C-alpha cells in the first residue's frame, strides 16, 4: 500500500470537527449519526473541493485545450492517480464510474454476457447486496447460465469449506462481498480468490463496505475485478471505480457508446479508446470525482490502519453495551467484523424502532438493507442497523444505548 502513513496518533475530537453536518440537531436533540454504511459524512475539505471546482475550474474533461479544460482534466485524472496509489494498482486499470452498482453491471454486461453459456454457473454468497445479485440474474437469463449460492455459518461468517466444495468445474465466476453491509463480516477475500484462481474461476469483489473501514491492497487480494463506491468513504455521491486486470479490460467491449470513449468514428465503424477510457462514455461526474480524490487524500492523512483501530474500539464498546440491553439480539458475530451491527429488539418492528430512535436524534437504518436473500436466510423481514465511522464517539454510543432503553420502555 503506497499511501502516506501518519506518525502522530490522530486527534479524534479535532477530526470529528472536520464534519459540519455532525454538529447539527435533529428533533431538538444532538445528532447521533449511526448510518455510515448507508452513506458516509463528508469533511469540509471535500465539500470545499467540489465548491472550488465549480467556482474556479468548471469545464469538461479531455476535450478543450483552453486553461479551464486543462485544469479540469488534471483534477479528474488526479483522482484516478490518487485512487491507484491508495489501492496499490496501476491507474490505467481503474475505470471511474458512478459507483459499485455501475461497476458491477459493467463487468456483467461487458465481461460475462459475451462469455457465459448454458451449463455455466455464477457462484454467489448468501450475504450479497442486491447490486451483486441482480446483474448476474439478468445475465443468466440471457445466457442460460445459472446461479449457485454459498451459505453462511451460524455466526454470520462464510462457511469456507462449503464455499470451496461449490467451486466445481462449471463455475465460471464468483461474486463476493469483501465486507457484508448487513452483518459486518469481513471475508478473507485473498484466500478465497486464491482458491478460485486455482480452479480457473474469475473473481468479482464488491468492496463498497471495505474501503471506508480498512486499508485495501488490491494487488495482494489477487482478484480479477474489484468494485467500490465513493460516497461511503467520505466522497460525494455518484462516484466510484472498477479495477480490473489489464487482460480483461483489453478483451472487454464497451458497455456504453458515445463521446470520450472513442479514437475515431466513421459510419462504417468505430475505433475505441484504450482502457480505461473505453468504458467512460459521456461527460462524467467531474466535480464529484474531484471531491473523491480529496476524500482519499483526507483518509490517507489520518491513516487507514488508524481508522480501522479506532472503529474496532468503537465496535467493541457498542457491542458490549448492546449486549446489556434486555431483549436485544445482534445478528452476525463473525470473528472479524467491520463496525456494522444489525439488531432486533423483542416486540418491536425494525421500522418502529428506527422511527422512535430518530425522535431521540439517533439515525440508524431499518429495512432489508438491499439484501432480501440474507433476510430470508436469517428468518427476519427486516433489521435495524447501527453502522459507525471513525468520526463517531464513545459518548454517542452511550447516547444511543440510552435512547434504545427509552424506546424499549415506550414499546413495552
UniProtKB/TrEMBL annotation:
PROSITE patterns: AA_TRANSFER_CLASS_5. Residues 32-400 form the Aminotransferase class V domain. Catalyzes the removal of elemental sulfur and selenium atoms from L-cysteine, L-cystine, L-selenocysteine, and L-selenocystine to produce L-alanine. It comes from the Bacteria. Its cofactor is pyridoxal 5'-phosphate. It is an enzyme of class 2 (transferase). This is Cysteine desulfurase. Pfam families: Aminotran_5 (PF00266). Keywords: Pyridoxal phosphate, Transferase. It comes from Lysobacter helvus. Its EC number is 2.8.1.7. Belongs to the class-V pyridoxal-phosphate-dependent aminotransferase family. Csd subfamily. Transmembrane segments: none annotated. CDD domains: SufS_like. It catalyses: (sulfur carrier)-H + L-cysteine = (sulfur carrier)-SH + L-alanine.
